[in-house]
Amino acid sequence: MAVGTDDPCHLAQMVRALGAEVDTAINRMPSDRAKASRPVTARSVGSGRGSEAGPVALPAAPERYCPVVIDINGALLGAEAARRLRQADCCVIEPGLSDDEFERIEAEYGFRFSADHRAFLAAGLPVSSPPEEGNTWDKPWPDWRSGSPDDLRSHLAWPADGVLLAVQHGYWHASWGTRPAESENARAIAENHMATVPQLAPLYAHRFLPAGGTHGHPVLSVWGTDVIYYGEDLAEYISHEFEEGHEHSEDWNPQADVAFWQDLVQ
């Protein structure tokens, strides 16, 4: 269901009218319309994939903004993930990213957050965790507000760089055709192919969500070509990663649908 309106107050009323599941859906509307809607929090939510509720179109934005669409289920899922992270009390959480900050980040780094990832970061920006012995990452949470641009670009490039390193050690994707005998030629061809695969957005250390899209994709743990599921969706991932004793449900069955990367999932 897509709904358009020129009245922000009317929009807020429609969102609340979607029912009990959405009554507490949106943590924060876009900042230049925030006064038109009260802040709310999510009660509970599943992955939301395939749900009947659809995106709600916001009023026409000023020319400097890209058109903004609120995916209700994505907002619910991101808000629930943020609630679980706060409950886990495992990291420092700063105020969430504003719409201007999202606009800057996405323009500077050339990707868009998925709807659930965006809602998660809008609810609160996790920036640091206590150091753990043997931890590969000094700063596992990408600090989208104040982090080093080089560090953020490196984090974004981690999945593709890992595949290219694997190519140097013999890996070759079947869709790339015949592998050249020379290692340098093989890497050059692989680089061309990797430049076209979907971008993964870093969530925490080597856990990633596909950029763009809507919501509900499984969280992937990516280490070179070793890719596994680490959460059926963003909220379940937070529980799995940070809640002691969390166990997957009996019907746990994540399904990736992001091109290339789904071929690597084990």
Describe the structure.
This protein is α+β, with helices and mostly antiparallel strands and 266 residues long. The protein has one domain (8-264). Helices cover 36% and strands 12% of the residues. The chain has nine helices and eight strands. It has helices at 8-16, 20-23, 72-88, 99-109, 115-123, 149-168, 183-194, 234-242, 261-264; strands spanning 55-57, 69-71, 92-94, 125-128, 200-204, 207-210, 219-223, 226-231. The strands form three sheets. The chain has a four-stranded antiparallel sheet with strand order 5-6-7-8. It has a two-stranded antiparallel ribbon with strand order 1-2. Helix 3 (72-88) crosses helix 5 and helix 6 packs across helix 7. The longest helix is centred in the middle third of the chain and has 20 residues, at 149-168. The two termini are 36 Å apart. Mean pLDDT is 80; it is low at 1-68.
Brief account:
With 266 residues, the protein is an alpha+beta fold. The chain is built from nine helices and eight strands.
The ordered string of helix (H) and strand (E) elements is: HHEEHEHHEHHEEEEHH
- Shape label: globular
Question: How are the strands of the largest sheet arranged?
Answer: 5-6-7-8
Chain oligomer state = single chain
- Helix/strand-derived category reads alpha+beta
- Any low-confidence stretches, pLDDT <50, length ≥5? 1-68
- For the secondary structure, the number of strands is 8
Total number of distinct structural domains: 1
Fraction in beta strands? 5-15%
Q: What Rg do the Cα atoms give? A: 19 Å
Largest sheet geometry? 4 strands, antiparallel
Number of helices: 9
Q: Give the averaged pLDDT, no decimals.
A: 80
